[in-house]
Amino acid sequence: MTRSYRKNEIYMGMVLMGATGLAMGWVIHSPLLMIIAGTLGLVVGGFIGWIGGRRYMFIICLGVLIGAFFGYRSGDQDILIIAAGSGGAIAGFMSAQIEQFFSIGRRVD
């Protein structure tokens, strides 16, 4: 049963990161970038899912969405891209701390 749970983690990671890569290409209006970023998103998402980082990915996606929202409000496409990337980076730092906080309770000495 643990094995299928791990497969679900991998598939969820691939879907989340692949969709993020496709969205990046869509914002820039480049079909080639959609293919390249989507493929890289599938690979990276599969790896993160394989090591069990579902909560980490959700927090980063939430940060990207919040950053993209504020970038969209500015009305400039370049600011949208920068704000989404910055939101993801900040959320990545925060999620690393959150993961560390949750892992303290599971630690057995």
Number of strands: 0
Estimated helix fraction:
over 70%
Whole-number count of domains: 2
Q: What string, H for helix and E for strand, traces the elements in order? A: HHHH
For the CA atoms, what is the radius of gyration?
15 Å
Largest sheet: none
Structural summary, described in words:
With 109 residues, the protein is mostly helical. It folds into two domains: 1-52, no CATH class; 54-109. It has four helices and no strands. It has helices at residues 2-28, 31-50, 54-74, 77-106. The longest helix is centred in the last third of the chain and has 30 residues, at 77-106. The model has no long low-confidence stretch (mean pLDDT 82).
What key attributes describe this structure?
2 domains, single chain, 109 residues, 4 helices, mainly alpha
What is the compact description of this entry?
The protein is mainly alpha-helical. It has four helices and no strands.
Topology:
Blueprint: H1 2-28, H2 31-50, H3 54-74, H4 77-106
